[in-house]
Design a protein that fits this description.
248 residues, mainly beta, SH3 type barrels, endopeptidase fold (from Nostoc punctiforme), six-stranded antiparallel barrel, three-stranded antiparallel sheet, 13% helix, 35% strand
């Protein structure tokens, strides 16, 4: 997904396998489509060659059916003797899908869970750590490249929770808490040197945080913010903490 209908425009987000969206408009050249991701309401432009139209009835079915979500870091689907590679967070709407009409020709043997089945903090932490060392990529949502809010969104999505796409939207969700009351699975938000809130990560045990900064990494967390031991400095200033997990 790009900011404008142009290959040279910045990537603002990504659509993973199985995600569906609504079309807002096409550009004048009829080469780009302005869309809204149904999961998080995020808007952007995609190449028309990557667009696949479905009926309104099937769109509504996708919105109201409990599908599976891939929990393997990477996996693949075999369809009509062709391999389609997918990543963690991919939706598997395999049944009654017009893209996969011939069920006997399709095979998926990876790990998956029910999309809305909620995991607890321990499972969420283990999931987050699967992304360790994933390189930072603006607009990325996969283990091959991810940004800070894409990381938190995807971890919570696989765990059964719905987060918005950007940190500026995620900070409006959940209940505010103090650092003293924080537990693993809480979200922590941070400001940069100019005082702008622009970063988010997930609280771990033992005063640690996992976040995407250069790569997905684990650093120390205290009342000042994120302390990177390898750089011997604070990289982000703590702004606010929010609780998303229901059982927390």
């Amino acid at each position: 997904m790009r900011a404008e209908g142009d290959d040279r425009s910045e990537m603002t987000s990504q659509l993973l396998f199985g995600e569906h969206y609504s079309v807002i408009q096409k550009d004048e050249s009829n080469k780009w489509v302005h869309i809204e991701n149904t999961f998080d309401g995020y808007q952007g432009w995609i190449d028309l060659k990557q667009h696949y139209s479905i009926s309104k009835e099937y769109y509504n079915q996708l919105c109201n059916t409990e599908y599976k979500i891939c929990t393997d870091l990477t996996s693949r689907i075999l369809f009509k003797k062709n391999v389609i590679h997918i990543t963690i967070g991919a939706i598997l709407p395999l049944l009654t899908n017009p893209l996969f009409e011939m069920e006997e020709q399709l095979a998926f043997t990876g790990e998956a869970k029910s999309l809305h089945q909620r995991w607890g903090a321990e499972q969420l932490m283990n999931l987050a750590k699967k992304y360790l060392n994933t390189p930072y990529l603006w607009g990325g949502k996969t283990p091959f490249g991810i940004d800070c809010s894409g990381f938190t969104q995807q971890v919570f999505k696989v765990a059964g929770y719905q987060l918005k796409r950007d940190s500026s939207e995620q900070i409006l969700q959940g209940n505010e808490i103090t650092l003293e009351g924080a537990i693993p699975g809480d979200l922590a938000f941070f400001t940069n040197k100019e005082g702008k809130m622009n970063h988010v990560g997930i609280v771990l045990k033992d005063e640690q945080i996992i976040h995407a900064s250069g790569k997905v990494r684990i650093d120390k967390l205290d009342s000042k913010g994120i302390f990177a031991e390898d750089q011997n400095t604070y990289t982000h200033t703590l702004f606010k903490l929010k609780r998303i997990l229901r059982e927390a």
